[in-house]
Amino acid sequence: MWSSHSEIHKVFNLILTNNYQSDNLDLEDVSFRHRYQIKDDNGEFIGRLYATAQPAMMQSDNRPIFVFTLVARGKPLEKGIDGVIRFMDLGRELIVEIFAESTSTEMHALWKRLDK
């Protein structure tokens, strides 16, 4: 488990460098924002996927948490409602993929996530 926002590496798969060593500095928290381009099967840009993580505290017991937000926005893959639904399906698939890739194996074990 983790007990501080500075332990973000226990929750998310990130490359962090904390090489600065000082008795006067302790890393307090970290946030991140990633933006990905979504492309269709022909490699054409059709939208973006946004991933953000912000430190927060649980109101009930003042434990540190991260608010992880994933949003996919883009244009329909074809005309009509079917194109809208197809983009929404693609966006959901990409969100699930990014969530699994972004979160640590330690968290997967805690959540009892089954690998596919």
Question: What labels would you give this structure?
Answer:
116 residues, elongated, three-stranded antiparallel sheet, alpha+beta, single chain
Topology:
Blueprint: E1 32-39, E2 45-57, E3 64-74, H1 81-102, H2 105-111
Antiparallel strand pairs: 1-2, 2-3
Task: Please state the overall shape, judged from the principal axes of the Cα atoms.
Answer: elongated
Using DSSP, what is the number of strands?
3
Largest sheet: 3 strands, antiparallel
Chain-averaged pLDDT: 88
Low-confidence stretches: none
Structural class: alpha+beta
| Euclidean distance between termini CA atoms | 24 Å
Spatial extent as radius of gyration: 18 Å
What percentage of residues falls in helices of 4 or more residues? 25-40%
Order of helices and strands: EEEHH
Q: Strands of the biggest beta sheet: in what spatial order?
A: 1-2-3
Total count of helical runs of at least 4 residues: 2
Strand content: 25-35%
Can you put this structure into words, describing what you see?
The chain has helices at residues 81-102, 105-111; strands spanning 32-39, 45-57, 64-74. With 116 residues, it is an alpha+beta fold. 25% of the residues lie in helices and 28% in strands. It contains two helices and three strands. It has a three-stranded antiparallel beta sheet, covered by helices on one side. The mean pLDDT is 88.
Short description:
This protein has helices spanning 81-102, 105-111; strands spanning 32-39, 45-57, 64-74. With 116 residues, it is α+β, with helices and mostly antiparallel strands. Strands 1-2-3 form a 3-stranded antiparallel beta sheet, covered by helices on one side.
